Each structure stands twice: as structure tokens, then as C-alpha cells.
Amino acid sequence: MNTTLILTLWRQRLSSAVRMAIVAMLCGFPLLATLFAPATGLSPLGNAQGLMLALGAGMIGQDVSSGVLQLLCARPVRRSEYVLSRWMGVALAGIAISLVQLAIASALLAARGFAPPPQQMALFAATRALECLGLGAVLALLSSLIGGLGDLALYLIAGLAGGVLSMVAQVKHWTWLDRIGSQLMESLTPTIDLHRLLLATPMPWSPIVSYASTVALCLALAIVAVNRKELSYASG
């Protein structure tokens, strides 16, 4: 990991007023729900999908479009280091914002007499961290394939395709097609259901293996894609 690259990414995100406004809305509206409907607990906070899309869109593609990646190629920075730093920078930002949101929500719930138990808070924080790391890896791959904010379009198209496949599978009663659609949707949002995993006896390893393999594969393919951009640029 490269600390300078991570800090540079954070500065880029903070300098974007539109991006920060979207992040504030995505985090603020669920907090209002916990304030006015405290009996729902932490459930209004939802998942990290919207937050990670706002933070991660264009993490590599914008550097390609602006020419920053070509400048980095002239410096002693490995392409794998660049990709992993971009991924970790987005993931850490998502985790940090999620923890702040969790702390505020817990304080609001406690003020209303519905303080969540520490175990629930820890489980929520761990699940969010896994979501941020997983979604960050998927966005790193998509962003390495297309310039600008095209990765956001690719993500939405893939999600729409998965939904259409599942819908057709239900109408036609095609189990195989439903599995494809479900697998596509799961690949776009890699995470682990820690609550179900901890309750299961014996503990199943397949969700952990599936999550880890998805994250590793996305990062490996992203590194390959960025390396090919470097070779193409050098040959040109």
C-alpha cells in the first residue's frame, strides 16, 4: 500500500462538493429514520452499496481520462501498488464514514431509550467493513476497464442485467437462469452474512471462500487491466 496515493484519493474525494453532498445525504437520511423511528434500531442504516458507489466511482477511470495514470507510470510506483492503494483508500473511507454513522445512530437511539446492544453494534460494524472492502474491489475492477465514471454505468447495467435474468427465470421457472442472475447480483455486492454465519452449526466455510475469492479475483483482474494500459501507453 502507498500512503501517499491513499491520502491523495481522500483529498480528491473531499474536494468534490457534489460527491460529498451525495455522501452526506446517503448517511443523513437513515439517521433521520433512526431519530423518528427508534424502534427500528439500526436497520434504517441499510448497507454500504450507495455509499461505496458515491466514494468509489471513477477511482481509476478518472485518472486514466485525466492523464494522471500516465504520469504515475513515469514514477517508481508499481501498478499493483497503485490499484491496491486505490482500493484500500476507498474502502477505508467507506469504513470510517460507516463507523461515524453508526456512532451517531447509536447515540440517537440511546437518547430515545433504544440503545443497541454492543454485540449488535460490533456485528453491524464488521459487516459494513466487509461490504466496503468487497464493493471497493468490484469498483476497482470496473474502473480499470473504462475511463471517467463509466464504472458506475457498468455497475448499474450489470445490476439491471442480474435483475432481468432473475425475473425471466421466475416467469419461465428456469432454475439455472435464476442461479446465474443470483450469482451475478452476489458478485456485485460481495459480503458475508455474519449473523447467519455465527448462528450456523457447524460454521459453513463456503460464504467466506466465496467472498475472499471474489475480492481477490476482482483485484487481480484490475491489476492486469492497469498493467495492460501501461504497456499500451509505452508501446504507443
What structural category arises from helix and sheet content? mainly alpha
| Beginning-to-end CA distance, first to last residue | 29 Å
- The total count of strands amounts to 0
Helical content band: over 70%
Number of domains: 1
How many helices? The count is: 11
Shape: globular
* Strand percent estimate: under 5%
Radius of gyration: 19 Å
The overall pLDDT average reads 87
The largest pleated sheet is described as:
none
Order of helices and strands: HHHHHHHHHHH
Unreliable spans are 231-236
Fold and architecture overview:
By secondary structure, the chain is mainly alpha-helical. It is globular. 30% of the residues are buried. The C terminus is likely disordered. Helix 2 runs parallel beside helix 6, helix 3 packs across helix 6 and helix 7 crosses helix 8. The protein is built from eleven helices and no strands. The chain has one domain.
List keywords for this structure.
single chain; 236 residues
How is this fold's topology laid out?
Layout: H1 3-15, H2 17-36, H3 49-56, H4 61-66, H5 68-73, H6 79-111, H7 118-145, H8 150-172, H9 175-188, H10 194-199, H11 206-235
Helix pairs in contact: 1-6, 2-3, 2-6, 3-6, 3-7, 6-7, 6-11, 7-8, 7-11, 8-9
Task: Summarize the entry for a quick read.
This protein has eleven helices and no strands. The chain is mainly α and 236 residues long. It has one domain.
